[in-house]
């Protein structure tokens, strides 16, 4: 994996590390208040999912129109992001961005083939990765079932029969 080449694997949080970190941050922020949660694990899981979507789509929250629950989530998310910044950590929602930055800075080269498979819709981060691959000479095509990128200019587009 290219994150190994960049020395970033130790900084990538696993899913369980992300979950534990969210639980701890939520627990600390609500301890001793009326907002103390009974379903901490489920709240952390849903908050983490929301964070991933917001990160992958580059959405920021404007606190002026948020409900009390949304404000709580916004504070938890900011605590999570601050913690990750302080400890130089990142999660899976930042992987495409890290790879794009590394390719743009010539820290790594794309492999002979790059496949983005199984996406009904590409997030902006994956679209950026697709563009970086195309800029480096990739041929790109999309089928109903998968988004495929080949990073060799000598590879021709497969026939429909081979995409089953």
Polypeptide structure, described:
The protein has helices spanning 2-5, 15-30, 40-56, 68-86, 95-104, 124-135, and strands at 113-116, 139-142, 147-150. It is built from 6 helices and 3 strands. The protein folds into 2 domains: 2-92, no CATH class; 110-163, no CATH class. The chain has a 3-stranded antiparallel sheet with strand order 1-3-2, with helices on one face. The radius of gyration is 19 Å and the shape is elongated. The protein is mostly helical and 164 residues long. α2 (15-30) crosses α3 (40-56), α2 packs across α4 (68-86) and α5 (95-104) packs parallel to α6.
Précis, in short:
This protein has 164 residues and is mainly alpha-helical. The protein folds into two domains: 2-92, no CATH class; 110-163, no CATH class.
Which stretches of 5+ consecutive residues score pLDDT under 50? 141-148, 150-164
In percent, how helical is the residue content? 40-55%
Number of domains: 2
Task: Please summarize the sheet with the most strands.
Answer: 3 strands, antiparallel
What order do the helices and strands follow? HHHHHEHEE
């Amino acid at each position: 994996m290219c994150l190994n080449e960049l020395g970033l694997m130790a900084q990538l949080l696993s899913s369980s590390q992300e979950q534990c970190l969210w639980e701890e941050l939520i627990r600390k922020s609500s301890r001793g208040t009326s907002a103390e949660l009974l379903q901490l694990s489920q709240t952390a899981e849903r908050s983490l999912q929301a964070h991933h979507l917001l990160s992958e789509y580059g959405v920021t929250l404007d606190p002026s129109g948020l409900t009390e629950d949304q404000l709580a989530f916004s504070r938890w998310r900011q605590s999570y992001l601050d913690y990750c910044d302080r400890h130089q950590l990142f999660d899976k929602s930042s992987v495409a961005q890290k790879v794009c930055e590394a390719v743009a800075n010539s820290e790594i080269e794309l492999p002979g083939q790059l496949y983005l498979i199984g996406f009904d819709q590409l997030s902006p981060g994956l679209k950026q990765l697709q563009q970086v691959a195309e800029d480096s000479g990739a041929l790109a095509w999309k089928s109903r079932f998968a988004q495929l990128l080949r990073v060799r200019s000598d590879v021709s587009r497969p026939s429909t029969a081979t995409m089953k």
